[in-house]
């Protein structure tokens, strides 16, 4: 399928590259492709960024049949444009689609769409260290019917947003609240899918954690509320006596691409990785015994976000003196180095735009 390109006749003024606030500014163009049951996916096109016309009866507004992804494009010192693990993001989009009864999208076509769109808007990619172009692919059900069933029409779209360095003032550890009232996901649910409803359902916990002075929550399992799962919209790692622990992929947590990258790099460093369930009791016990050396969250936005403090009921655990740990720093440097082209891409994670 040929991707058609209609360029804007009215380019926007580029934002101040020193003051980019995450997810607030969008580029000049967007990608759209439609789906109908009889035709499959059709009419892939790049058009000027702008509002959509949807009827109030549009299904996504009522039953949230939608999925999304998040990845980034980086500009190297030499001016080359690189995407990180894009195939993996598009495969994960299809896993989410499968769960939400959304038709699959050809991975190669989705990759081509993103590459073409990023090329059209390449002047929007900031160049300074730590900056990037955030890519947000998403799919919505668009039937104009209010009845609970899978939509028979969809739109797959991609929008782009230049983002500044997550760590302008250096990497700062965060305070994380162990959530024991609300749950994010349950076995058999949609926890492993990147679908809007998961995030709408998490807002209240995040809001209450902020009111208590914490920046995010650590989710526990939805059945027993005792096993550690993930942090906000990131996966969680704990270094205990030199061994890395992270929760296994059993359907309730998101299979983060940064999580997978981190596991690969930890193993390369000779660090044992245990993808096993462990309880929050155990975690606090490790801390009391002085064995909890480092803790960090992983995700596309921040890459590595060290956890400096955990709050749980009336307990507080300060981790590594509220400083970033050696392993966390090394993983951060390795991932960002591969992304921005200063380190070798041994695992073929990079797709370069020609
Ligand atoms: C997106 C996301 C992650 C991190 O995934 P990455 O691919 O590393 O960005 C982790 N948990 C949740 C709930 C997420 O939505």
UniProtKB/TrEMBL annotation:
Superkingdom as given in the UniProt entry: Bacteria
Catalytic activity: L-valine + 2-oxoglutarate = 3-methyl-2-oxobutanoate + L-glutamate; L-isoleucine + 2-oxoglutarate = (S)-3-methyl-2-oxopentanoate + L-glutamate; L-leucine + 2-oxoglutarate = 4-methyl-2-oxopentanoate + L-glutamate
EC number, UniProt record: 2.6.1.42
Xref: InterPro entries: Aminotrans_IV (IPR001544), Aminotrans_IV_CS (IPR018300), Aminotransferase-like (IPR036038), B_amino_transII (IPR005786), BCAT-like_C (IPR043132), BCAT-like_N (IPR043131), BCAT_family (IPR033939)
Keyword Amino-acid biosynthesis: yes
Enzyme class: transferase
SUPFAM superfamilies xrefs: D-aminoacid aminotransferase-like PLP-dependent enzymes (SSF56752)
Pathway: Amino-acid biosynthesis; L-leucine biosynthesis; L-leucine from 3-methyl-2-oxobutanoate: step 4/4; Amino-acid biosynthesis; L-isoleucine biosynthesis; L-isoleucine from 2-oxobutanoate: step 4/4; Amino-acid biosynthesis; L-valine biosynthesis; L-valine from pyruvate: step 4/4
UniProt keywords, alphabetically: Amino-acid biosynthesis, Aminotransferase, Branched-chain amino acid biosynthesis, Pyridoxal phosphate, Transferase
Protein's UniProt keywords contain Amino-acid biosynthesis: yes
Regions that span the bilayer: none
A GO MF term: L-valine-2-oxoglutarate transaminase activity
GO biological process, one term: L-valine biosynthetic process
PANTHER family: BRANCHED-CHAIN-AMINO-ACID AMINOTRANSFERASE, SUBGROUP IIII AMINOTRANSFERASE
Family (UniProt): Belongs to the class-IV pyridoxal-phosphate-dependent aminotransferase family.
Name under which the protein is recorded: Branched-chain-amino-acid aminotransferase
């Amino acid at each position: 399928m040929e991707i058609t390109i209609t360029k804007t006749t009215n380019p926007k003024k580029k934002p101040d590259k020193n003051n980019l606030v995450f997810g607030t500014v969008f580029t000049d163009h967007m990608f759209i492709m439609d789906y109908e049951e009889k035709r499959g996916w059709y009419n892939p096109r790049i058009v000027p960024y702008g509002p959509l016309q949807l009827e109030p009866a549009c299904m996504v507004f009522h039953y949230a049949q939608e999925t999304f992804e998040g990845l980034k494009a980086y500009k190297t010192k030499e001016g080359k444009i690189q995407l990180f693990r894009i195939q993996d993001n598009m495969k994960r989009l299809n896993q989410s689609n499968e769960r939400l009864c959304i038709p699959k999208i050809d991975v190669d076509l989705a990759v081509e769409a993103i590459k073409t769109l990023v090329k059209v808007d390449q002047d929007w990619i900031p160049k300074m260290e730590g900056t990037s172009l955030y890519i947000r692919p998403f799919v919505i059900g668009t039937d104009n019917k209010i009845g609970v069933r899978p939509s028979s029409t969809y739109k797959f779209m991609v929008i782009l947003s230049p983002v500044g360095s997550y760590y302008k003032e250096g990497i700062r550890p965060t305070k994380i609240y162990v959530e024991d009232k609300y749950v994010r996901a349950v076995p058999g649910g949609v926890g492993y899918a990147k679908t809007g409803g998961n995030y709408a359902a998490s807002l209240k916990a995040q809001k209450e954690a902020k009111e208590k002075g914490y920046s995010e929550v650590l989710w526990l399992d939805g059945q027993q509320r005792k096993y550690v799962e993930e942090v906000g919209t990131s996966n969680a790692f704990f270094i205990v006596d030199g061994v890395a622990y992270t929760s296994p992929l059993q359907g309730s947590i998101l299979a983060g691409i940064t999580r997978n990258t981190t596991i690969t790099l930890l193993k390369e460093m000779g660090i044992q990785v245990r993808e096993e369930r462990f309880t929050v009791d155990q975690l606090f016990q490790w801390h009391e015994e002085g064995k909890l050396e480092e803790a960090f969250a992983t995700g596309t936005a921040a890459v590595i976000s060290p956890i400096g403090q955990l709050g749980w009921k009336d307990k507080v655990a300060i981790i590594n003196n509220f400083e970033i740990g050696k392993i966390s720093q090394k993983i951060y440097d390795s991932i960002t180095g591969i992304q921005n082209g200063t380190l070798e891409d041994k695992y073929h994670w990079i797709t370069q735009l020609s």
